[in-house]
Design a protein that fits this description.
The complex is a heterodimer of chains A (about 375) and B (about 400). Chain A has about 375 residues and is an all-alpha fold. In chain A, about 70% of the residues lie in helices and about 0% in strands. Chain A has 2 domains: about 55 residues; about 230 residues, MetI-like (MetI-like fold). The longest helix of chain A is centred in the C-terminal third of the chain and has 34 residues. In chain B, helix 12 packs antiparallel against helix 13. The interface between A and B is large, with 54 and 55 residues.
Chain lengths: ~375, ~400
């Protein structure tokens, strides 16, 4: 019997060419059945007919950043990046004074640095809140000015990307504590508190954001005592906070519901008061679970800031639209929308990738 | 010592609530009175300010304006409307336009979204990549930007009416939108609609009878094919019985615009395309996660029981996938309906746009915003109630 067992292994045979390598990959991924083969060929035909003209328009036949609209109109075969070249600073910073535009640029830099740093879980410590506070103070100084020799800039002149980021980040930061209270209220045993929170959340979630922006822009002046007025930006910001609080409350409620009952009972058993129980036991766990849905809320919130164009603020979309209304640049909407679309996309896509990564990382901790 | 006092103080005396802040029941009552009091106080502050401001600016209150003449035109309407009609009727036009774009959008987005969601799971690498590229691009760009793009594509990118594109005979594409031929008016079309309805009811009846018979006797009846035959066959028979009319109402260029045929305005095209494509990307993700949520073992078990491919999908996979799909799908439908309010930005006369014109003309901002919010709440709640009912129907029946 032992004679049949070879003690020295033969060198490994190369697998047959149709199970590994590029040909096998093609066979198993593109041509694994007759209908997949047909689909593959159809899709390839579609791509071949669509991609070269698009690349031609985008790059090959395009006019550079220094071209002007007359040249572009004569030869309309490609994109006219001269539009972006001329309007870049207006689209990015709105009507912020020309010579001071390094200030909004720096603001964008500060926000991006803060957001990127916040993605690192090593920074999820209480002291990082102070970093954020310092960053926001710096942003306020840069945008408004009026101190340290910076000229004062009214917030009606703010626009472009800084406005988009300010509306979403400040909205989120203020709405976050409110949403925690709303989520706790919705899970509360006290009927009156529960009814109030449920009514608020469902009311806000049942209506479109536009109606809230309308409310803020046309009804808020009526709500306030005579003589007190709130500027447009703050009104929009209030609408965003109300809106974000309701949606984030639902994300946090999801986290609260995922905490097993034993955690509540154990905290009660230790004799902790309600707020001690929430602060030390429940919320740290619930918020960790709620972070991915919160990031998703933030993404949709970031996209929704574009609605402020309807009440007359110039965020990134607003400035692009205003740039298009320049008579000499009419009709170059493809370039404008592609450009800002890419900016929005970079922000949203990186946030959604981050949220997916976070979800994987956090799940790993939960699994045994 | 500390625990001892806590337990003795914390326990309510038998038979009632003690008037002490250390009694949880009493404390809860105090908190609630405080919270409700604060809300009422803030509410009263706002209402009194508002009344004061309204009186100061002499703005009328109440909904009397709904009966007054609107005096503004509306681009497209499902019911008869002229500027001489009342604000109330104008608002109704707006509500119907919102419902029109929402219903068509929901149907199209569900179909496209399902196809893309299935395509993302395809074993064909190219198709799966293409579908996921679509989802990743569309989901991460603001819907308003997409609407602006589609609207500009039609109103700027297409030729003026006189040089309208004519891709298929009778179909015209221009800055004024799409014109397509429709069948000329004939009583047979209405009868066909009735026949279709009868066919659907009959198909439903047959499927119930077939199921009852199968439960009783175990005999199978091809209810699906019979139903399909009824739904398609009855209208065709009606059409043939009505003399099979083929006359079409073809759009013709007369003067500066087209007459005849059916028109799709650029605004409607932009809002419908934008909303459909945007929501389809989200629905694709919902469908994909629903399908992946069903364990592969379920398919294997069904095969082991001898079920062929079709019934496996219909009886085993789909019922389980739908349980995962329906709740997030509901919120996507609600989102589409709420996002239809973006129509305001491109000039499609939906309810927000018409309420906005109304409140600008009458100055009655509070009534206008209340009407917008009230209508959306009613529509949202109706969709939620229907989808909750459906969800309960397909939910897992547990012991």
């Amino acid at each position: 019997m032992t004679d049949n067992v070879q003690s020295v292994g033969l060198p490994d045979e190369r697998p047959p060419a149709n199970t590994v390598g590029p040909i096998a990959w093609l066979r198993s991924n593109l041509f694994n059945s007759w209908y997949n083969a047909i689909l593959t060929i159809l899709v390839l035909a579609l791509l071949v007919s669509a991609i070269p003209p698009f690349v031609g328009w985008l790059l090959v036949n395009a006019h550079g950043f220094d071209s002007n609209s007359t040249v572009c109109r004569q030869d309309a075969g490609g994109a006219c990046w001269g539009f972006i070249g001329e309007k870049l600073r207006f689209i990015m910073f709105g009507m912020f004074p020309w010579d001071e535009q390094w200030r909004p640029l720096l603001t964008i830099g500060i926000f991006i640095a803060l957001l990127v740093a916040s993605c690192d879980r090593r920074f999820w410590k209480p002291w990082f809140g102070l970093v954020w506070a310092a960053g926001l103070t710096l942003v306020a100084i840069l945008m408004w000015g009026g101190v340290f020799g910076l000229t004062y800039v009214e917030n009606t002149l703010w626009g472009g990307l800084p406005l988009t980021i300010i509306l979403s980040v400040i909205g989120l930061a203020v709405a976050f504590p409110v949403s925690i209270l709303l989520a706790l209220g919705r899970r509360s045993d006290m009927p009156a508190v529960k009814v109030l929170c449920v009514t608020y959340i469902e009311l806000i979630r049942g209506v479109p954001l536009i109606s809230l922006l309308f409310m803020a822009s046309v009804m808020l002046p009526l709500f306030l005592p005579n003589g007190v007025s709130v500027d447009k930006l703050l009104r929009a910001q209030i609408a965003f906070i109300m809106f974000a609080a309701a949606y984030m409350a639902e994300a946090i409620r999801g986290g609260l519901q995922a905490i097993p009952k034993g955690q509540y009972e154990a905290a009660d058993g230790l004799g902790l008061s309600y707020w001690q129980k929430m602060r030390k036991i429940i919320l740290p766990q619930a918020l960790a679970i709620a972070i991915p849905p919160l990031v998703n809320t933030f993404i949709s919130f970031f996209k929704d800031t574009s609605l402020v164009i309807i009440i007359g603020l110039y965020d990134l979309l607003g400035t692009a639209k205003a740039a298009l209304s320049d008579p000499s640049w009419r009709g170059f909407y493809r370039e404008a929308y592609l450009f800002i679309g890419v900016i929005y996309w970079i922000f949203c896509f990186s946030m959604s990738k981050y949220s997916q990564k976070l979800e994987r990382d956090l799940n790993r901790g939960h699994r045994r | 010592m500390a625990t001892e006092t806590r337990t003795t103080q914390g326990a309510p005396p038998p038979g009632g609530v003690s008037i002490s802040l250390s009694d949880p029941t009493f404390r809860a009552i105090v908190y609630q009175i405080l919270v409700v009091g604060a809300v009422v106080l803030v509410g009263w502050f706002l209402v009194s300010n508002t009344l004061d401001n309204l009186a100061r600016r002499s703005i009328a209150t109440g909904y009397d304006f709904l009966g007054r003449e609107a005096a503004f035109g509306i681009g497209e309407s499902l019911i008869d409307y002229s500027p001489k009609d009342t604000y109330g009727r104008a608002f109704l036009v707006g509500v119907l336009n919102t419902l029109k774009v929402s219903v068509i959008g929901i149907l199209l987005a569900t179909i496209i979204g399902t196809l893309i969601g299935v395509a993302r799971l395809s074993s064909n690498w190219l198709i799966a990549k293409l579908a996921s590229t679509y989802v990743e691009i569309i989901r991460n760009i603001p819907p308003l930007l997409q609407l602006f793009f589609w609207y500009a594509l039609v109103s700027d990118g297409l030729p003026p009416v006189r040089q309208a594109l004519n891709p298929i005979p009778g179909v015209f594409l221009s800055q004024r939108g799409l014109r397509v031929p429709v069948p000329a008016p004939d009583p047979v079309w209405a009868n066909m609609g009735i026949a279709l309805l009868v066919g659907i009811l009959a198909a439903w009846g047959v499927s119930r009878w077939a199921r009852a018979r199968q439960d009783r006797t175990g005999q199978l009846f091809p209810a699906g094919w019979t139903g399909l035959g009824l739904i398609i066959g009855l209208p065709i028979l009606t059409w043939l019985a009505g003399g099979a009319p083929l006359a079409m109402d073809v759009p013709k260029l007369t003067g500066f615009n087209f007459t005849g045929g059916a028109a799709i305005s650029p605004e409607f095209f932009a809002i419908l395309t934008g909303l459909t494509l945007y929501t389809a990307a989200f629905i694709a993700e919902v469908v994909r996660s629903g399908i992946t949520a069903v364990n592969w073992g379920q398919t294997e078990a069904a095969r082991a029981l001898g079920l062929p491919g079709g019934p496996t999908l219909r009886l085993v996979i789909l019922p389980q996938a739908l349980r995962v799909i329906v709740p997030p799908l509901t919120s996507q439908y609600l989102n589409l309906m709420k996002n239809s309010s973006l129509a305001l930005a491109i000039g499609y006369p939906d309810l927000v746009s018409i309420a906005n014109t109304t409140l600008n003309q009458t100055g009655q901002a509070i009534e206008g915003v209340t009407m917008i919010m009230g209508t959306y709440l009613v529509i949202s709640l109706s969709i939620s109630i229907f989808m909750n009912w459906y969800n309960k129907r397909i939910a897992l029946v547990e012991r």
